[in-house]
Amino acid sequence: MVSASPNGPASPRGQTLLLDGITQRYGTSLAVNEVTLDIRGGELVALLGPSGCGKTTLLRIIAGFLAQTKGHVMVGGKSVDGLPPNRRSVGIVFQNYALFPHMTVAENVAYGLDARGVDRATQRSEAQRMLDLVKLGHLGDRTPRQLSGGQQQRVALARALAVNPSILLLDEPFAALDKNLRLDMQIEVKRIQRLSGITTILVTHDQEEALSMADRVAVLSQGRLEQFSPPTEIYDAPDSLFVNTFVGSANLLGGVLVDSDRSAGRVRLDAGGLIETRAPKGDLQPGSRVTVCLRPEHLSVDPVGDDAETLNGVVEMGLPLGATVVHEIRVGDGTAVKVSEPRIQRTDLLAPGTPVRLAPVAPRLASVFAAA
């Protein structure tokens, strides 16, 4: 097994995975609509979206549990459309782990090898190797009920890896864990994925999980692919209003596009003021109604200001939230705008009624879309 730094790029051992124009219909209902994803070997990709967006349907299509209505699944450049699940070389970790309660940990890990007719000696050695990889080599004789939730998850991961799959599928694997254990297991799974170098698809509705673990994130909405990009681009440069509002939090301000080019734009806000922004998404002309999206941490607040060409407001309340301070500010059109700052930048909360001036920290962090 090829190794790599747990924090570095994944090993190139994994196979490429291409979902080419995948469409899935259930009668007149369209669950997945022309989704194309070209996934590199050794990459960890998260499928992110709300319930019913199509992410689990895509996972089932990759695994072979569901035959797509249209499109092709290619692994390592070869079509697997006609292959049953047991011939697709795909390993799966389910949300409930699906361990056999009457088997020992080692027997659970060796189960897939046994089903493939591998000899007993090889089963034992491979099971031990996988358990060592997930740091459970000393627990092979225990049964699943004698393990914690996190340990059971690692056994399920070891079982999926034991058959040497080309693709690893993780179906909401952390949903049953409490918050602290979930973070520990996210780090552990990322480490194992990096060490094994296997191409991995993670299905999740948890934004933080997707952004922290994945090399790239595919954001889905109502069966359509909204964006497929690295986490930083998903967060800082969303392609659509849906992505901007679904991933993280955002303040939405209406306005009119004054002018723009391929690198920047200017918007006159309904709340007052003229701000510089990123180039608008879509074919928008000056005079178009637009929505400006500004994340709370992408805004600066100055307790001095009454300029007609700036976004002005009045502080309604301030909340100290651990390492950050959040102020809610009412701007000219009545919209409540949230601003988040590190506490080191502001030692005192601004008093309610304080007049302030707001501005994007940088124009590239203010996204502009056609008004809904």
Structure description:
With 372 residues, the chain is α+β, with helices and mostly antiparallel strands. It has two domains: 225 residues, P-loop containing nucleotide triphosphate hydrolases (Rossmann fold, 3-Layer(aba) Sandwich); 122 residues, OB fold (Dihydrolipoamide Acetyltransferase, E2P). It is built from eight helices and 20 strands. A six-stranded mixed β-sheet has the order 6-7-8-3-9-10, with helices on both faces. A five-stranded antiparallel β-sheet has the order 13-12-11-14-20. Helix 2 packs across helix 3, helix 3 crosses helix 4 and helix 4 packs parallel to helix 5. The longest helix is centred in the middle third of the chain and has 18 residues. The termini are far apart. The N terminus is likely disordered.
One letter per element, helices H and strands E, the order comes to: EEEHEEEHHHEHEHEEHHEEEEEEEEEE
Helix count from the secondary structure assignment = 8
Strand content: 25-35%
pLDDT below 50 for ≥5 consecutive residues: which ranges? 1-12
Which structural class do you get from the secondary structure elements?
A: alpha+beta
CATH topology of the largest domain, by name, is Rossmann fold
Q: What is the β-strand count? A: 20
CATH superfamily of the largest domain: P-loop containing nucleotide triphosphate hydrolases
The N- to C-terminal Cα distance equals 50 Å
How does the major sheet shape up? Answer: 6 strands, mixed
Helix coverage percent of residues? 10-25%
Lateral strand order in the biggest sheet = 6-7-8-3-9-10
CATH class identity of the largest domain: Alpha Beta
3D shape = elongated
Instruction: Kindly give the count of domains.
Output: 2
Q: What's the architecture of the largest domain, going by CATH?
A: 3-Layer(aba) Sandwich
Overall mean pLDDT: 90
- Over the alpha carbons, how many angstroms does the gyration radius reach? 25 Å
